[in-house]
UniProtKB/TrEMBL annotation:
Superkingdom of this protein's organism: Bacteria
Catalytic activity: [GlcNAc-(1->4)-Mur2Ac(oyl-L-Ala-gamma-D-Glu-L-Lys-D-Ala-D-Ala)](n)-di-trans,octa-cis-undecaprenyl diphosphate + beta-D-GlcNAc-(1->4)-Mur2Ac(oyl-L-Ala-gamma-D-Glu-L-Lys-D-Ala-D-Ala)-di-trans,octa-cis-undecaprenyl diphosphate = [GlcNAc-(1->4)-Mur2Ac(oyl-L-Ala-gamma-D-Glu-L-Lys-D-Ala-D-Ala)](n+1)-di-trans,octa-cis-undecaprenyl diphosphate + di-trans,octa-cis-undecaprenyl diphosphate + H(+)
Gene3D superfamilies to which the protein is assigned, alphabetical: Biosynthetic peptidoglycan transglycosylase-like (1.10.3810.10), DD-peptidase/beta-lactamase superfamily (3.40.710.10)
Keyword annotations from UniProtKB, A to Z: Carboxypeptidase, Glycosyltransferase, Hydrolase, Multifunctional enzyme, Protease, Transferase
Protein name according to UniProt: peptidoglycan glycosyltransferase
Pathway the protein takes part in: Cell wall biogenesis; peptidoglycan biosynthesis
Organism annotation: Gemmobacter nanjingensis
């Protein structure tokens, strides 16, 4: 008989091994449900702060979170309460299961469940019930298979993302944001305990519907946590006065218009990180609501703020409220086509400075003038006579800017807008002189991009909310951009606003339909539009009175003090009118300034369109005709102002395309455009 024991033992071990192998094969053959479920698309700011999230297709909030992003005290409390041996077992806690069965046999009812966190994940993945034996066996098999294929941390993450918290809330993060208004990175012991308790009976323990039951369940979790040493006695005492939330807080919805746009442009991307700064966005959205609060039910507002050095948009407020109200809050007014009023004038002046047509100290007429059937008038119907160009821009006079537009040619103004990255929409096939007074369709985004180019020394940098930016085209020279900024910085601020030399311009479109204010300092650019979304007039709305105060408040919310504007470029002509070259002292119309006669000066070398090399940085220029002395300019910057010969070596600023202009003592001129190497 004794001789048979070794045989029996060997046979038993073989049977056990065979059984284990078959069990492993059975577990390995488990057909697992999908381990990745659709999650809410999220839009976050530059610091990963949630701006807006979207429910999944079935209307549930299911927001991704990892164990590293969760308060460690919650994880400790969860494991201690739900599955003490989570980190040791293989998916099924056989000891707990045996205890649960024994208790059920003794009492004739289920006393404890015995389900591990892994088994709960299996149930949540398959959305299976807990009462039937077949369902429990299936959960055990799936749990064992999960433990074979995933790490404990991955299983824990599945639970954190799938646990039910009542209503349409799935996952710890959605619950924490909804019940406490914060991410689950930092939770109080009472908050952690409530979030541990709810998934056991998510509908009957919803704090927004059953705060009493939720409080009782939370208390039981805290008692267990104290008993198991997860929290201290002092922490337990501190939880006694902490109320259970009795309502749901809305999921963050900052920059909703912008978020909708980037989600539509990036289908299938689960997480979109923007350049927006959440704190500033929230502050400017509040400012927008305040600005229209006492101004009727239809006045609307949009605000766009950016760092013009980098091109990053920091805040985008499409309306005073993302609502289906009389303001039509669902319309993103940063993207709506509107008339810019006078806010395009700085572009015209900058281009005119570059062309050598004018200088800030040039005198220009503000008198009645007709261009065929077009007879522009100033907004206030008053003419100022002869004024400095600086004053004409600061007073936003209409006649001088139309004269400059006529001299430049409207097509050149449109080309300048497009170089700035704008997409102007014309009323007809060809641009007319009225474009400089607002006769063109633009967006707030377009206008802020234009002013950002001026602030950056004349070089456009496309504004962006995602990805990296690359410099665009030059809109105007650095000298012209500085001159425009210097003129705008001399504008007096609105009543009550600080006198801080913010470079800004206001505008009001025809019929008081649009009120604008756009400004910049050495780093930031902000644009404000106010009006009605449907384009109807707003009686009494002026850019200076309506939008400018909001602009100064917005700038103040970005930074306590302005970043200084840059100093003048070395080539800037900083002189009075009397010290200007004779042709720049007084503006002459296009016909007078550029009409060639037999005696008009002409650049004979280099010829139009030529490619020429500089000699030691200098260019040989040959001239003919005109009355001495002559003035020669490159891109509007004087190279020689008292030239008494018709041939000279002139120091050039650098390689690239340049427009050479020659003006004689009587104001007659000509020009050529060449490529310097």
């Amino acid at each position: 008989m004794r001789a048979r024991w070794p045989i029996v033992l060997v046979a038993a071990l073989w049977v056990a091994a065979f059984g284990l192998d078959r069990a492993r094969d059975w577990v390995a053959a488990t057909d697992l449900p999908p381990l990745t479920l659709p999650s809410s698309v999220e839009v976050v700011d530059r610091n990963d702060i949630l701006l807006r999230a979207y429910t999944v297709a079935d209307g549930r909030w299911r927001m991704t979170v990892t164990p590293d992003e969760v308060d460690p005290s919650y994880l400790a409390m969860l494991v201690a309460y739900e599955d003490k041996r989570f980190w040791q077992h293989d998916g099924v806690d056989w000891r707990s299961m045996a205890r649960a069965v024994a208790q059920a046999v003794r009492s004739g009812r289920v006393v404890s469940g015995g389900s591990t966190l892994t088994m709960q994940v299996a149930r949540l993945l398959e959305d299976s019930g807990t009462g039937k034996v077949s369902g429990k066996l299936r959960q055990m098999r799936v749990a064992l298979a999960l433990e074979q294929r995933l790490t404990k941390s991955q299983i824990l993450q599945l639970y954190l993302n799938l646990a039910p918290f009542g209503g349409n809330l799935e996952g710890l993060r959605a619950a924490s944001l909804t019940y406490f208004g914060k991410e689950p990175r930092r939770l109080t012991p009472a908050e952690a305990a409530l979030l541990v308790a709810i998934p056991q009976a998510p509908e009957s323990r919803r704090p927004d519907r059953h705060p009493g039951r939720a409080a009782e369940a939370r208390g039981r979790v805290l008692e267990r946590a104290l008993r198991d040493g997860v929290i201290s006695a002092e922490q337990a005492r501190q939880t006694q006065g902490e109320r259970v939330p009795d309502g749901r807080q809305p999921v963050p919805m900052l920059a909703p218009h912008l978020a909708d746009r980037v989600v539509a442009e990036n289908p299938g991307v689960p997480r979109l990180k923007l350049t927006i700064e959440a704190g500033l966005q929230k502050s400017l959205e509040a400012l927008a609501r305040e600005a229209v609060q006492a101004r009727g039910e239809q006045l609307q507002i949009a605000i766009l703020a950016a760092d013009h050095r980098s091109g990053e948009i920091l805040a985008s407020v499409g309306s005073a409220g993302f609502l289906a109200d009389r303001r039509q809050g669902f319309v993103d007014m940063t993207q709506a086509l509107r008339s810019p009023g006078s806010t395009l004038k700085p572009l015209v002046y900058g281009l005119a400075f570059d062309e050598g047509l004018a200088h800030p100290e040039t005198m220009i007429d503000d008198k009645p003038v007709n261009f065929g059937t077009y007879a522009p008038r100033n907004f206030d119907k008053i003419f100022r006579g002869t004024v400095r160009v600086r004053e004409a821009l600061q007073m936003s006079l209409n006649i001088p800017v139309v004269l400059l537009t006529d001299a430049l040619g409207p097509a050149k103004v449109i080309a300048g807008m497009r170089r700035a990255g704008m997409a102007p929409v014309l009323k007809g096939d060809e641009p007319g002189l009225a474009i400089s007074l607002g006769g063109v369709g633009v967006t707030l985004h377009d206008m802020v991009q234009l002013y950002a180019a001026i602030a950056r020394g004349g070089v456009a940098l496309p504004l962006r909310v995602m990805g990296d930016g690359a410099p665009g085209q030059r809109v105007m020279s650095a000298v012209a951009a500085w001159q425009v900024a210097d003129v705008l910085a001399g504008l007096p601020p609105p009543p009550g606003a600080p006198s801080n030399r913010l470079a800004y311009k206001t505008g009001t479109s025809y019929g008081h339909r649009d009120a604008w204010a756009i400004g910049f300092d050495g780093r930031y650019v902000v644009g404000v539009w106010m009006g009605r979304a449907d384009g109807t007039p707003v009686p009494g709305a002026f850019g200076a009175d309506t939008a400018a105060p909001v602009l100064f408040q917005a700038i103040g919310r970005i930074s306590r003090s302005l970043t200084p504007l840059p100093p003048a470029p070395p080539a800037t002509l900083l002189v009075s009118n009397a010290e200007l070259p004779q042709p720049l002292r007084r503006f002459r119309s296009r016909t007078a300034a550029f009409e060639l006669t037999a005696d008009a000066p002409v650049v004979t070398f280099p010829p139009e369109g030529a490619e020429v090399e500089r000699l030691d940085g200098q260019l040989l220029v040959k001239l003919r005709g005109g009355r001495l002395p002559l003035t020669v300019m490159a891109d509007g910057v004087p190279l020689r102002t008292d030239l008494r010969s018709r041939e000279a070596l002139l120091a050039m600023p650098g390689a690239g395309f340049v427009t050479l202009s020659v003006i004689d003592a009587e104001g007659r001129s000509s020009r050529v455009r060449v490529l310097l190497k």
